[in-house]
Design goal:
Elements lengths: L5 H18 L44 E4 L14 H13 L1 H25 L2 E13 L1 H4 L5 E16 L4 H67 L5 H35 L22 E4 L2 H7 L1 H22 L4 E12 L11 E10 L7 H67 L5 H35 L31
Parallel strand pairs: 1-4
Antiparallel strand pairs: 2-3, 3-5, 5-6
Helix pairs in contact: 2-5, 3-5, 5-6, 5-8, 5-10, 8-9, 9-10
Length: 516
């Protein structure tokens, strides 16, 4: 048997495969490297131009303790538990478990993972297909050598294999971009969970503040109504002019006018809290929050800038978008180079079905192709320039996201210091109003002042209670904002379970729906 002609047929495909595999080791385009964290001028004040005090001011009374700022301390995973409220903890957990927003982000993550899995199998492994067919044909005299032609049946069966060699890394860059898309969606899940938990906490604090303001306003109204009754009696006896009655009625009416707005805000806050928890606004069963049911966290972490860029979900999501843009530059660069495809098939053809798989009917083929761009009017180079511009845009957006994150932390730290001072001032005003009331009460008991002065002192004290409640709630809310600004501690908790919905929504279209 002469082997001099068959040997090249066996070695040529092997050489082609070896060449393709050697080319597949390279990938053109930039290799992505995460941007370095920004440098700060002074490690002692990494976020603000002036140093933030290590401890805030303190004030007497609930919620007035000084807060210690610990630079470099880690953020707990369930930071809302530091408010020491079991109902708040249960509500946040319920919201994370039933929020449609979190469920939507988780579904987008699963979609990105599935698309990646589909492309990994389709673009990195050979494509194998099977084919079988049967045909009844009439061949012409020219092709069959038979007068008037010939009618015959043709049967075939084959297995076809094709493989695109990733010689310059286009496929790897595409998969790299898809993997970055998975990272992006994963950070979107964490961002949605962080925003939701912070919104639940701040909404609960807002409810507690409104309840305190409502109670203080009602107490002011009671004091003014008592004062009005006294003035009316004095006017009836001729002791005071009717003008005094009108002044007192005006004050009462003005205070009463503030009540509906507070009640409206409280109702809307409750409904918002229900929706955040994944429930309908009219559903009951939500806990009621008061300022006395919450405790102010006294030890607050302050993350180092180098750790902040790795902990904030929005920064990580922006970095994933930058990674996607970098991978697209690699894809556009690889498209400038030739594309190599290997293919082969093994099968059988026969004019008789019972001889389809016998020896003489076997057929096979093996080949390769190379597709190289020669002239395309500069389209490929333009697409590469567009990909590079998209990368520059993503880099600028990443830098802006980092700047906004640092601004968020800086503003919150300043707010905490200002909130403590405001609460201290409000506590002083409340204490002075209390002393004034005590003094006026003793003077009234001694007959030195009128009952109107006593009622006015009572009203002043109740009004300071409104400012005190607002200042106290501001400290709580800005404390929650700090934990959110620092990333929420997602790295210190377990992964989120798939979010569902406790509300049964009817997704079936009604019979009278348009188009049906």
């Amino acid at each position: 048997m002469d082997t001099t002609r068959t040997a090249p047929r066996r070695t040529a495909p092997a050489a082609a495969v070896a060449l393709a595999l050697s080319l597949a080791g390279c990938a053109v385009g930039p290799d992505f490297k995460p941007p370095a964290p920004p440098r700060v001028a002074d490690a002692a004040r990494p976020y603000t131009a002036a140093a933030v005090p290590a401890a805030t001011a303190s004030a007497p009374g609930p919620g007035g303790a000084a807060q210690q700022l610990a630079l470099g301390q880690d953020v707990p995973g369930q930071w809302w538990q530091l408010f020491r409220s079991a109902p708040l903890d249960a509500l946040v957990r319920s919201a994370l478990a039933h929020s449609p927003t979190v469920a939507s982000a988780q579904a987008a993550l699963r979609q990105a993972q599935a698309l990646y899995d589909a492309d990994v199998g389709a673009k990195t492994l050979p494509a194998v297909t099977g084919q079988a067919g049967a045909a009844r044909e009439r061949g012409s005299q020219a092709t069959t050598g038979t007068p008037s032609g010939r009618v015959f049946s043709l049967y075939n069966a084959s297995v076809n294999v094709s493989y695109s060699v990733d010689a310059f890394g286009a496929t790897r860059r595409e998969l790299e971009g898809l993997q970055a898309g998975i990272d992006l969606q994963r950070w979107q899940v964490e961002a949605a969970a962080l925003t939701l938990s912070a919104n639940v906490v701040t909404t609960a604090i807002q409810e507690a503040s409104l309840r305190a303001q409502l109670q203080a306003t009602r107490d002011v109204i009671d004091a003014q109504q008592r004062a009005l009754a006294v003035v009316q009696q004095q006017a009836a006896l001729g002791a005071v002019a009717q003008q005094a009655v009108l002044v007192q009625r005006t004050q009462l009416a003005q205070t009463l006018a503030t009540l509906p707005a507070l009640e409206k805000a409280l109702a809307q806050t409750r409904q918002q809290l229900s929706v955040l928890a994944g429930r309908l606004p009219g559903d009951g069963g939500l806990p009621e929050f008061t300022l006395d049911s919450l405790q102010l966290p006294t030890e607050l972490p302050v993350t180092l800038p180098s750790a902040l860029v790795r902990q904030r979900p929005d920064i990580q999501a922006s970095e994933a978008q930058l990674h996607q843009a970098s991978a697209q530059v690699g894809v556009a660069t690889a498209n400038l180079y030739p594309q190599i495809t290997l293919s082969g098939s093994l099968g059988a053809q026969s004019l008789q079905l019972d001889r389809l798989f016998s020896g003489p009917s076997q057929v096979w083929s093996l080949g390769g192709s190379l597709l190289a761009p020669i002239f395309n009017g500069g389209a490929l180079q333009a697409r590469r320039r567009a990909a590079e511009a998209a990368y520059d845009q993503a880099l600028a957006q990443y830098r802006q996201t980092v700047l906004n994150a640092f601004l968020n932390v800086a503003n919150t730290l300043r707010a905490l210091d200002s909130d403590a001072q405001a609460l201290q001032a409000q506590a002083t005003a409340a204490a002075l109003a209390r002393q004034s009331l005590d003094l006026t009460t003793r003077q009234y008991q001694a007959g030195a002042v009128s009952s109107l002065l006593l009622l006015d002192a009572q009203r002043s004290l109740q009004q300071t209670r409104i400012g005190l409640a607002q200042a106290r709630a501001a400290r709580y809310a800005d404390t929650a904002a700090l934990f959110q600004a620092l990333g929420g501690g997602w790295w210190n908790r377990q992964a989120l379970a798939p979010a569902g919905t406790p509300v049964a929504f009817d997704t079936a279209a009604p019979a009278s729906a348009p188009g049906r």
